[in-house]
Amino acid sequence: MTDMETISENAIEIYDQAFDLFDRGIMDQAEILFQSLTFIEPDWRDAWVGFGICLRVGGKLEEAQFAFDVARKLAPDDSAVLFHRCELACAQKDWGQARAEAQEFLALGDAGRPVAGHAEMAQLVDFLQTRSAGVTA
Amino acid sequence: MAAVSIYNVLRTVAQVQVAQAMAKVDGAIVTLPQMSSSPQKPTNTQPVAQDRVPAQIQTQTPSAALSPQARAQMAQSQLTQTLTDTVDRILSAAHGNKAPLGDPTAPRPQTRPPQSAQFAPTAERLNPQQPAMPMTGRAGSNVPSAPPILVRAITLASLPTPDVIKSLGRGALRVKSELSPSVVQTLDTGSVKAPVDKIGIPAARQPAQTVLQGVVAQPSVQSQPQPLLPVVTRLLAQVADGEITEAQFVKTLVSQILTGRPHDQASPAPSVPRPLVSGSPILPLPPVQAPQADRAPTERATAQASVSQPAPQPMREPVAHIIGRFDPTGGQPLQMTPSFSVFPHALSELAIPVPVTMQALGTMTQVPPQFKDLAGLVAYYAAMLPGWPNPDAQRLKRPKDIPVPLIQLAQAVKHLSPEQQIALLSRMGMPFGAIQVLQKMLKDLDKKLNAKTVETFLAAFLGTLSFVVEEVVTFFDDLSQVLPQEHTN
User: What is the pTM of this model?
Assistant: First the structure.
């Protein structure tokens, strides 16, 4: 994964713009900028995650899967990546994969990178457990 | 009226009890915002249900308060029965995102965030203390099938903010580009599907010949707004006047950059080819038959080009022109033989690790065309290097007679910062793949190649990419202001 100190100013500028566009709801252009980042800084986890999030929001699930796969390879123990992969698996109704991602997320404990989506991940885990219980019942 | 009030009370109490029961049963984290005792505040602006319960009881129980205690106990029994029924109704309605009861004014479990939360301000949406979305699936007899997080609730909260990135990244690119305007302009045009390179060079460039002719056609290159070194300015003027050829221009320019002084002072008269060390890649026009020893690299290059470019694009004139200088057959296509497959082996011998992202990109269903083309172009010229290692050239070692300045030159190129290397290549319009290949080559430059091949490669490559000559010249101008200082160190 790219060392943060090696990220160029230009890439950071694009990241800033992509973030701003996303926050303003201009998802398609944010997606373009994140995609550009994946070319400019191909080993930057955040670029791939941002790209994947934009794709996910845009309903491009397969493409988002690819982006998160790359992010996963770049940062295998990153809880944020696991969270988004789990959420994407839920969206794809791939419950087995979602449970696997959730288990890896939980197994990380505090070792993973702090992620702001712990509450959301808790919801996903709760959802998966509830669904699993319902299926077995 | 009294029945409605009691009904509301029952429903509210039932909601609380259902939530508490669910929390006890599955032991999971119940994050229904309306009922959670978590300190996290939900995104909706309605008060939580727990807060409503006592208020509603206070406002709705005065009629019951007049009853005696026995009457209250009977009411409690009825309440229990009604509670059971209400629980069933709530459970049955929970998965359908429907209001369990018909009173629209009564508080109900929110399954969707308020509309205002969709595009909330950044600070608010990125607040990790704010759960983006309550659960939509609940425990019960039915198996929930809907993901608990709606698309609109997926934010960039898991990513570091730009401020954090800025604080972590040093942004070492020395050459500050006009990336933002170009990106914005590209976005405005709505035609952004091509990747944006590092310094914002538009993907669509002017054709090589057009730009080059534009440079040549300038009556006075001194009128160019770009800051040009005197040597470069003079060389450009000579090119414009036809005193020197493009090849001589590039060769002289490269030598100037690498050694700090002109390689061979360009003269109006064509220079006589010098004795060659390991090949004859650069010769003055018209093309001269290359030595027999150069056939193998050229053949390898042609083979690699065939392999790496499944759908060859029409080659630009300068490219074909320069390739012609290397082609001993005078531009006739070479036939592929089994020996042409040595290039992949050569790559493996170099132990060039393929970045994970490149592996992943290999699985992409749609790779940008320019990625393939330019990556193939780089591979083409890499294979063309006379000293490029192959199974038959294991014994290749650095000659002892390599000029020291050239070694310093190679070292200087090698020790360019990644940002400088990328900046150079980006100015050439090189995409990521080509940059990766070249960086790997630069990494092993002093080990695998000799200075002659380096010079040859650079000259050929820069000549091929003459359509970005302005960018190259500008970069060399910047670089030449740094290299002399480094040489003196």
Answer: 0.32
ipTM: 0.75
DSSP secondary structure letters along B431-463: -HHHHHHHHHHHHTHHHH--HHHHHHHHHHHHH
Q: Does B72 touch chain A (CB under 8 A)?
A: no
User: Which of B125, B160, B197 shows the shortest C-beta gap to A46?
Assistant: B160
B contacts of A13 (beta carbons < 8 Å): 179-180
Tens of pLDDT, residues B105-151: 433 333 333 333 333 333 333 333 333 333 333 334 455 555 555 56
A117: nearest CA in chain B? B158
Nearest CA in chain B to A50: B156
d(CA A93, CA A107): 22
State how many domains chain B has.
Answer: 2
Distance of CA B54 to the CA centre of its chain: 55
- Does residue B387 belong to any structural domain of this protein? yes
> In chain A, what are the domains?
1-75 (1.25.40.10), 76-137 (no CATH)
Residue from B436, B483, B118, B224 nearest A43 by CA: B436
The answer to whether residue B468 sits within a structural domain is yes
Of B126, B132, B198, the CB nearest to A120: B132
B366: nearest CA partner in chain A: A63
Same domain, residue pair B260 and B356 = yes
